[in-house]
Amino acid sequence: MCASKSTRLMELDMGCLVSLLFFLFIIATKFDCCIGHSPKALCREEEREALLSFKKGVDDPSNRLSSWVSDHEECCNWEGVLCHNTTGHVLKLNLRWKVGQYASSFGGEISSSLLDLKNLQYLDLSCNDFRRINIPKFFGSLSNLRYLNLSNAGFGGVIPHQLGNLSKLHYLDIGDSHYDYRNSLNVEDLEWISGLPFLEYLDMTNVNLSKASNWLHVMNKLHSLSVLLLPSCELLAIDPLPHVNFSSLITLDLSYNDLITSSFDWFVDLISLTTLNLAFNEIHGEVPSGVRNMTSLRFLDLSDNNFVGSFPDWLFHITTLEHLDLRSHGFGSNKFEGKLPHDIGNLTSITYLDLSFISLEGEVPRSLGNLCSFQLSNFSCYRPRKSLQFLSLGGNQLSGSFPHTLGECKSLEYLNLGMNRLSGPIPISLGGISSLRYVNIRENLFKGSLSTKHLANLTSLKSLDASSNLLTVQVSSNWTTPFQLTELYLGSCLVGPAFPAWLQTQKNLQSLNMSYAGIIGVIPAWFWTRSYDEVDLSHNQITGSIPSLHSSYMYLGSNNFTGPLPQISSDMEELDLSNNMFYGSLSPILCRRTKEENLMGDLDVSGNLLSGELPNCWMYWSELAMLNLGNNNLTGEIPSSMSSLIWLSSLHLRSNRLSGDVPVSLKNCSNLAVLDLSENEFTGSIPAWMGTFNGKFIRFFPGFDETTHTPGLMVLLLHSNKFNGNIPLELCHLHSLQILDLGNNNLSGTIPRCFGNFSSMIKPSNSTFFPFNNGHNFGFQTKDTATVVMKGLEYEYENNLGLLTGIDLSSNKLSGGIPEELTSLHGLRFLNLSHNHLQGKIPVKIGAMTSLESLDLSMNRLSGFIPQGMATISFLSYLNLSYNNLSGKIPSGTQLQGFSPFSFIGNPELYGAPLTDDCGEESKPKSPIPDNDDTEDNGWIDIKWFYLGIPWGFVVGFWAIMAPLAFKGAWRHAYFRFLEEMKY
Predict the structure, then answer these.
(1) Which pLDDT does position 921 carry in this prediction?
(2) pLDDT in tens, 954-964
(3) Crossing angle of helices 938-967/969-982, nearest 10°?
(4) What's 761's DSSP letter?
(5) Cis preceding linkage at 497, omega within 30
(6) How many CB atoms lie within 10 A of CB 69?
(7) Distances in whole angstroms, Cα of residue 340 to Cα of each of 355, 367, 387, 783
(8) Taking a C-beta distance cutoff of 8 angstroms, is the pair 593, 620 a contact?
């Protein structure tokens, strides 16, 4: 009675096929009647001459127009030329350049002889390079044009308003995907567009429309407009639109603009819209409700805006959607409240769904599986469609177990559940999705095993990221993989103890991260012979030596590698061999001449056993931006060739045995932002030229106009050397300086009052951003560090280095008072002026330094009262005012009374809690004042003996009680009977 489903599909397919063939027959018949190659219609003489004149003006390095010659009279057969079949008039000129078809594109000038092609209807000059010449004004006189394509042709300047004379135009593309800020296409106004009443397609990608404030009202006059593409046009706002005339619009793209607060009420009338792209704007508020009426919508991209409020679950009732993107990349900040709605299961036509980084929470609804079920498409003649292919829910706060219903998504190719709070085991059903190419489940709470049962059927897999979970990789060493990976990230998963031998079968592997993976022992020799893009095997217990390295980015720090440093290829860009046991000299790898230029940008060999002098061959490493040689046994002076490192932004030489003066040649490294020379034996005065490292504009690449601004010196660490003399006033010019450590030297004189000009310390920083703490790629990163003494202890800062601000001038011979100007540094987090000869009072306004967490003024000759404002520094967690001449009562308040008495000891005239319970004069503590001279700190010796005596006192007291209990049975029995009675 009723036909089966397969029969009905065959009938529908046959019906579609007949309709399609009939449509193509009509089009082909019409086209053949108008244009083609016919021996009956010869090319018009005047039009042939016009084409030859055009050829003379253009540059044709590929000789594409070789058929355009005067002795070949039939110009209708020339390359790119089509004529009317009966009249011989040139109707179509297609000179579009196609990659691979021709070696190079057209350039040069465009002759006005084209005006002699009076019947020209189709002109395509796209994808050429006319070197930013203006679009010819005479194009506006080609009055019969229906189709004009000038996209990506290298035009620049103001678009001529004469194009508005092309009243028969249906298609206009003047977009440019290659934005050139120097001479981009732009308009003074857009009124000329209203002269194109039949326009159906308009693409103005990357055209600067910032001066055309009425752009929407002009576009609204185009009743026939179906496609409007205005991405990256510097649009600032959308004015209200009282009435919509272009209601036939099918595609609207306003992405990559600067729209902030705009009126979208007119969206209600765009009921025919199938594609809407508002991505990468700054639109605030809720998602425009007018989208509800777009019941034919198939493509919707609202990513990277500032949409807020409850999640617009009504989006899941637009069942025609095939592509939905609401993600946030970090530049935008779409933040929706609430859980992922159960109604997500209504999107049965969806193939692409990206809801990443938009603050979703709760469990993943089971209805997600509905997106994977077999459906008949409403388009393409009711043929079966593919189900969900792309799913990204990463970077949210989703919880619960792995969504098991995803196992039904047999067409899924891309799956991102990373950076959530999902937990439990990985279901075996994941391994049944043989179409998967990309899987990201990183940074969750998954536990259990990741075994061959999960991976055996993933024959299409190219990228797997399971890092930062509680997973154990259980794969036999002789496993034969069904896939060929290009990316594998298993950092912080248990992969070891043995290095996985099955990786030898992965011939296409380019990125590998197995850091913190519990790998012990030697890496197989075959691994070092291969070339990779990125490898991270840091923080394991890998042993053995490394013969040579061939990867672009290699991170092998914090292992047990030994032997001399390996040979490195000239195309390596980042190398981390820190915290191993490499020994020998730097010279063999740094002074080896190569034919190719060394591309090394970041080199870290700190924390090894390297010795010898710094080699004087840094001229071969001119691309270096970060160099860390700290914590080795290097000797000698800084070589003059380091002046060749003009791009160097971070230099760490701490904790070696380097000596001599800091050479003036280092001044040439003017892009330095971090300079760490601490814990060496440098002598002389601190160079005044360091004050010139204050940031500047530099060209990105030689020969190009594009520039960038270097931040200037942000971290200066000269701690524990033998510098002497005064602190140079030139350091006050370092407006970007966040950390200044000159402690434990032989500096004298006073603290410069102009230190109050350090503008980066005036306001508290609430950003962790630091110029060099940005990962090169997902799973790989190069970070800068700074080691400082704060709160009495030594800390190494890395992730939060951008938040840290502080000054350490301790253990010098500085005299005079504490400058009142220092109290203007409201963003300062630590200040250490201890062990100097400072006199006078603590500045009264010190309470204004509200960001202080650590303050050490001990072992000086300060006098007077403790300012009351100090009690209001709420973040202060470490305070040491000991061994001064302070007097009076310690200001009351929970802040200061919470510190140990040792914070105030050694001030004979100081009293009050926490020193005493009674604030009376008779209870003031009497402590000796240390003789804080240049040769001996007797008070400091006293306090050292005090601290040394604490553990011995504890030991003696402990055994004084426990020894009798251990050797006297009667005493022991009596003691335990006493404890037993205490229970009752």
Answers:
(1) 43
(2) 544 555 555 55
(3) 100
(4) G
(5) yes
(6) 12
(7) 9, 11, 20, 36
(8) yes
